[in-house]
Automatic annotation (TrEMBL), chain A:
Domain Acyl-CoA oxidase/dehydrogenase middle: 123-217
Gene3D superfamilies membership: Acyl-CoA dehydrogenase/oxidase, N-terminal domain, Butyryl-CoA Dehydrogenase, subunit A, domain 2, Butyryl-CoA Dehydrogenase, subunit A, domain 3
Listed SUPFAM superfamilies: Acyl-CoA dehydrogenase C-terminal domain-like, Acyl-CoA dehydrogenase NM domain-like
Keywords: FAD, Flavoprotein, Oxidoreductase
Pfam families: Acyl-CoA_dh_1, Acyl-CoA_dh_M, Acyl-CoA_dh_N
Domain named Acyl-CoA dehydrogenase/oxidase N-terminal: residues: 11-119
InterPro entries given in the database record: Acyl-CoA_Oxase/DH_mid-dom (IPR006091), Acyl-CoA_Oxase/DH_mid-dom_sf (IPR046373), AcylCo_DH-like_C (IPR036250), AcylCo_DH/oxidase_C (IPR009075), AcylCoA_DH/ox_N (IPR013786), AcylCoA_DH/ox_N_sf (IPR037069), AcylCoA_DH/oxidase_NM_dom_sf (IPR009100), Mycobact_Acyl-CoA_DH (IPR052161)
Tagged with keyword Oxidoreductase: yes
Name by which UniProt lists this protein: Putative acyl-CoA dehydrogenase FadE
Gene source species: Planobispora takensis
Keyword Flavoprotein: yes
GO CC annotation: plasma membrane
Molecular-function GO term, any one: flavin adenine dinucleotide binding
Signal peptide: none
UniProtKB/TrEMBL annotation, chain B:
Lineage: Bacteria, Bacillati, Actinomycetota, Actinomycetes, Streptosporangiales
Name listed for the protein in its UniProt record: Putative acyl-CoA dehydrogenase FadE
Cofactor: FAD
UniProt source species: Planobispora takensis
Keyword Flavoprotein: yes
Residues making up the signal peptide according to the UniProt record: none
Family: Belongs to the acyl-CoA dehydrogenase family.
Top-level taxon of the source organism: Bacteria
PANTHER family: ACYL-COA DEHYDROGENASE, ACYL-COA DEHYDROGENASE FADE28
Annotated Acyl-CoA dehydrogenase/oxidase C-terminal domain residues: 211-350
Keyword set includes Flavoprotein: yes
Acyl-CoA dehydrogenase/oxidase N-terminal domain span: 7-87
Biased composition (Gly residues): 104-119
Gene Ontology MF annotations: acyl-CoA dehydrogenase activity; flavin adenine dinucleotide binding
Length: 375, 355
């Protein structure tokens, strides 16, 4: 497939102009605080008003049918403009692709528009105290009841769950079936009766995630995605979205690398060739990620397990990029600010969405074809 | 822009893969290292027959180029098979001669001096235009093996003893060169020679610019070759890890081994698009910077692949006899050839902060 980069220039200009006029200045407070969360929700609504919150979606759900190339361009402009982090990311990047593949028309019509407008912010509910990397060990249950299911158990490390409106995740609905069978994918309201949420301070104290305690929480049948018992397959069919391009687009790293370069010009001792070398390495990697992104959208086949290669790369790039920035800042590197916020956020990258160790197993076994561990 | 190879380009790569696999390349490499260039030169002619060198020569001079994407596709395969010879050097020389051929840098009249008289010491004041016009078609058809020194990045002429033409750029002057005594490289198939500058072929600032362009093309070819070297090392190491048993199981079952190899794949998978992207940018003002980014990443990825290949193979990988050594040694040698990664990274930053 031939990507015509010049054909998307009018779209790029439109996005750039709109962002230039609307990106909040000064920046919004951290989205991992209650005040910042509300401000970011309002920003999502403003973005949606301009038709820019979910550009790649079909128009009927709030998008504008952008091609993958246009989406990449949108992301480049979005982050280059220093626009706010996406508080709706769990919904638009993780749940929505699952719904597009497995949801009913009724679910799409009901769930997507308020997701696109920021009216409903979604949290993930995957991990449990005994099921992290080993997600299939999860024990929270969904028990059949009249017209739906009752959820019980505990979820943890639920990103955005401290302030979000709704959650999605996997629950064990059949104890007789194997580990990966008998799981059901459900959506539920965090305000529902029986849900208790306890915010958890992340390493810098901000409540970026939460624990959820579920006690006979009712979920109607219409909130089950895919067939009951097929939840693992449903979840895994779009796991590549979280690991691949969708969650962390090249635009984000290109913009950060350019800011790093500006910081280098402003702060660096030109004689410090060790730091210069690291700035160059980060810039080159951001560039590599962009080119890889173009390659990925040019391919016709599904990237499948190759998404794990992506996840390892961007998560490590993000850490290296922010570490370099803090080193450039020297003694100011420990002070509160955008770079430190970005650094703290980057530290979670090699852990969430499947730790990089799990990704390396996936790459080794499913891409390189090395033998599975039998122990 | 095509960020993936099209069907024809893929087929070209596959054709070269088959050609090199069927030609007993490891044997040719070892013979080359031992000073018996016969099989390597036969391979050179086969590669030329498949169109490899024509990719660097413009159509007006009997080639099919410049076709940078096809060129990096070819060099990837040349690296995968550890093909011997001054491959990147010949390609760089084609760029150098093309840039100077017929240009104002030519001294004297465009003479009749043609291929076959290089190094003869005659006709020193003949112009480059005539000789370039003669050498380029020969490079394209595989009739000329060319080596060159482009100090400081390329201080020695590779395989100069088998080259039909040896060049050296000294500041503003392009000269013919005579090889001195061979030096010993970590990669015995890389026979490096100091050169003594001879007759001036061209002079002036054009030479400097042409040499810079040649250096970029050589670095790009070397980057593609390096990714190919790394890719082959990953392939043979995965194969070895699946077959070699210790503690009653294939060592590839152990996570420590798996994670090493997954890391190699990650590095290679992100070096390759940089090489392809640099080839796509040929002709744009960004080309030198894109080449530097590609060369730095490709060298690092290939070298990491070599280190891991050696570690996973264990003692057998540390032997000369086992063929993995051909690639393990080459990865390190190519790491510093055509500019070190650190040098290329410095160039990236210089380009970004002054441009």
């Amino acid at each position: 497939m031939d990507l015509d980069l010049s054909s998307v220039e009018p779209f790029r200009a439109e996005v750039r102009d709109w962002l230039r006029a609307h990106v909040p200045d000064p920046p919004l407070p951290s989205l991992e605080t209650e005040e910042g969360f509300a401000a970011h929700r309002a920003w999502e609504s403003e973005l949606a008003g301009a038709g820019l919150s979910v550009v790649s979606w079909p128009g009927r759900y709030g998008g504008r049918d952008a091609t993958p190339l246009e989406w990449l361009v949108f992301e480049e402009e979005y982050y280059a403009a220093g626009a706010p982090g996406r508080v709706s990311q769990n919904g638009i990047n993780l749940l929505a692709p699952t719904l597009f593949r497995h949801g009913t028309p009724e679910q799409l019509d009901r769930v997507l528009p308020p997701m696109a407008s920021g009216e409903e912010i979604w949290a993930q509910a995957w991990s449990e105290p005994g099921a992290g990397s080993d997600l299939a060990a999860l024990r929270a249950t969904a028990t059949r009841t009249d017209g739906g299911w009752l959820l019980n158990g505990q979820k943890t490390w639920s990103s955005r769950a401290a302030f979000a409106d709704r959650g999605f995740g996997l629950f064990r609905s059949d104890h007789e079936a194997g580990r990966h069978r008998g799981l059901t994918y459900v959506m539920f309201a965090l305000e529902a009766e029986g849900v208790t949420r306890r915010p958890i301070g992340r390493i810098d104290g901000k409540p970026a995630f939460a624990e959820l305690f579920l006690d006979d929480v009712f979920v109607a049948d219409r909130d089950v995605i895919g067939a009951p018992g097929e939840g693992w397959k449903v979840a895994m069919s779009t796991a590549g979205n979280e690991r691949g391009l969708t969650l962390r687009s090249p635009g984000r790293f290109l913009a950060a690398a350019d800011r790093l370069l500006a910081l280098w010009r402003e702060r660096a001792d030109p004689a410090d060739t060790a730091l210069r070398d690291r700035v160059a390495e980060v810039w080159i990697k951001a560039r590599a990620y962009r080119l890889k992104g173009f390659e990925t959208i040019s391919r016709t086949e599904d990237v499948g397990a190759e998404a794990s290669i992506n996840k390892i790369f961007w998560s490590e790039l993000d850490v290296a990029l922010h570490e370099t920035a803090l080193d450039l800042l020297g003694p100011d590197g420990e002070l509160d600010g955008d770079w430190l916020e970005g650094y703290v956020f980057s530290l979670a990258g090699p852990i969430y969405a499947g730790t990089n160790e799990i990704q390396r197993n996936v790459v080794a076994e499913r891409v390189l074809g090395l033998p599975r561990d039998r122990s | 822009m095509k960020f993936v190879l099209d069907a024809e380009q893929r087929l070209f790569g596959e054709t070269l893969d088959k050609l090199l696999a069927g030609a007993g390349t490891p044997g040719a490499v070892r013979a080359w290292a031992a000073g018996q260039p016969g099989p390597g030169l036969a391979l050179w002619r086969s590669l030329a027959g498949a169109g490899v060198f024509a990719l660097a020569v413009p159509e007006s001079a009997g080639g099919a180029g410049p076709l940078p994407v096809e060129l990096v596709t070819a060099f990837h395969e040349l690296g995968r098979h550890a093909a011997p010879g001054p491959l990147a050097e010949t390609v760089a020389a084609a760029v150098l001669l093309d840039r100077l051929g017929g240009g104002t840098a030519a001294r004297g009249s465009p003479g009749s001096r043609g291929p076959g008289t290089a190094g003869s010491g005659e006709d020193r004041d003949r112009g480059l235009a005539g000789s370039a016009a003669g050498w380029l078609p020969r490079i394209a058809e595989g009739g000329a093996v060319v080596s060159l020194a482009l100090p400081p990045a390329v201080p020695y002429a590779l395989d100069a003893d088998v080259a039909d033409l040896v060049l050296v750029v000294d500041g503003d002057e392009l000269r013919e060169a005579a090889p001195g005594t061979a030096m010993t490289s970590l990669d015995p198939a890389r026979r490096l020679f100091p050169v003594t500058a001879g007759a001036v072929l061209a002079s002036g600032p054009q030479v400097r610019r042409a040499a810079a362009a040649a250096c970029d093309m050589g670095a790009l070819a070397c980057a593609a070759q390096s990714v190919g070297v790394g890719r082959r090392l990953l392939e043979v190491t995965v194969e070895y890890a699946a077959a070699r048993r210790q503690f009653g199981r294939p060592i590839g079952e152990f996570q420590a081994v798996k994670h090493h190899l997954a890391g190699v794949l990650v590095d290679l998978e992100y070096a390759r698009p940089l090489v392809h992207g640099a080839a796509l940018s040929y002709g744009s003002p960004d080309f030198p910077r894109e080449v530097s980014a590609a060369k730095a990443a490709a060298s690092e990825a290939a070298y990491a692949a070599a280190r891991i290949a050696l570690q996973v193979h264990g003692a057998i990988g540390y032997t000369d006899e086992y063929d993995a050594s051909l690639w393990i040694r080459k990865a390190r040698a190519l790491y510093s050839a055509w500019g070190s990664p650190a040098g290329h990274r410095a160039r990236v930053i210089a380009s970004l902060t002054t441009g």
